[in-house]
């Protein structure tokens, strides 16, 4: 519009002339104004047609915005027709401009998208966060609208840790950052995790500066691994190494602690540069070995669980961190197992007696057999020397035969006590399972040994070179073993003489009791102290002499 000072007198005095000239100037400007494809311009809605809205953009021909170019949203025709009305100012994008044919196609949604991409570029370059609303869940992540443009939020970028369930985020407004932008491909990648990591980093820095060694903290277990557990402390995760979880024994940490559990721990060390915090749960519990002597004195009984079996014994957990060993020799009074598994099983609850304690070496010796009466203490009273027994052969060696006296207790019949005639190889005469009769010679409860004799229950051998009339009556020669000096001493026995007795063995008659059976000294069965046959033979000879004297 021209200034009043530049108007001619005719123009100033005639408004119609001025309006006409202004209209001509505007028309010339419209004829001269051109638009090109890709331009973003502002126009005024003139009227609505069946195909769209006509917009005055300052050219000689109005442009048209087709209904499908109004918005990205899928709306019915009735809703689209209500989006604009005559007189509205609208920013449009020139899709096609053919001034000669008078056809100009405009797009409102393309203009909005263009402006959105400009804004997105600014956000991307500056790294500024923006709040978006999640529209839907798709394969691999979520879809959100940012500045009217569809953007993809991968599942790995939703939270600090991958979240398998994403449905809960649909419809929520969340703060994100643009981590990838490509307008040509129409690609916009978002990340919520980036913002969370920045927030966590600030919290971590603040927390690390406040933590001190020896401080007690509380947190939630967020991960359980083979080497330990991680505890969330509010911005930083502290590591409790498996050796610092408990004083007790375990194979995997998950046996004693679980994910999500709230625990208290003691700070062992803090490395602010490496953002590492080492914690200890067991440090808040006293070491059980400190008070073991007072709590479990020698001779006391304890209850525990078998936690390990080895070749030499069984380990029993009395309480977490306090384990004792039951040596294989302390498992039973009577059984001699080759492995503790023959008596105990892992996980079994047992009662044991404290035998020895060494707190400095952290050793606790236990006994299982001490919880039961010792059968060896009463064995000599139940089986005095001379008591006959019957049992099965349990073992064979070159030096004798082992026979079961009672369940769990064995006795040895030395080769010299197997028969009147020496048996060089017992395995050729006996076999396991054979039932054998024997007599008790000696019992040593301290060494847990029983000496037996089989030959003392056998009838004595009859010499083959004596006549029928020379054979002793009533078994008087029961003690003879075929030696020359004994064969020549039959008549002397009738006179009460004992000169015919052999000299190759000595007798010990100091232990003869009321029953006429001597108590035998310990040692090998080969050096037994009494021969029952000789003793009874002498007694019978004396009776014969008395009968002959009465007849005379």
Output the keywords.
5-stranded antiparallel β-sheet, disordered N terminus, OB fold (Dihydrolipoamide Acetyltransferase, E2P), 10 helices, alpha+beta, 25 strands, 552 residues, single chain
Protein model, in words:
The protein is of the alpha+beta class and 552 residues long. Among the domains are: 38-112, Nucleic acid-binding proteins (OB fold (Dihydrolipoamide Acetyltransferase, E2P), Beta Barrel); 127-196, Beta Barrel (OB fold (Dihydrolipoamide Acetyltransferase, E2P)), CATH 2.40.50; 213-284, OB fold (Dihydrolipoamide Acetyltransferase, E2P) (Beta Barrel), CATH 2.40.50; 288-367, Nucleic acid-binding proteins (OB fold (Dihydrolipoamide Acetyltransferase, E2P)); 381-453, Nucleic acid-binding proteins (OB fold (Dihydrolipoamide Acetyltransferase, E2P), Beta Barrel). It is 19% helix and 32% strand. The protein has a 5-stranded antiparallel sheet. It is rod-shaped, with a radius of gyration of 56 Å. The model is unreliable at 1-12 and 467-542 (pLDDT under 50).
Quick recap of the structure?
Residues 38-109, 121-193, 214-282, 299-369, 386-455 form the S1 motif domain. With 552 residues, the chain is an alpha+beta fold.
Are there runs of 5+ residues with pLDDT below 50, and where? 1-12, 467-542
* Category by helix and strand content: alpha+beta
Number of strands: 25
Q: Total helix count?
A: 10
CATH superfamily of the domain at 288-367: Nucleic acid-binding proteins
Record the strand order, biggest sheet. 3-2-1-4-5
Calculate the terminal CA-CA distance, rounded to whole Å: 186 Å
Beta content comes to 25-35%
| Overall outline | rod-shaped
**Largest beta-sheet details:** 5 strands, antiparallel
Q: Which CATH class of the domain at 288-367 applies here?
A: Mainly Beta
Q: What fold name goes in the CATH topology slot of the domain at 288-367?
A: OB fold (Dihydrolipoamide Acetyltransferase, E2P)
Output the radius of gyration: 56 Å
- Tell me the CATH architecture of the domain at 288-367: Beta Barrel
- Share of residues in helices: 10-25%
Mean pLDDT: 78
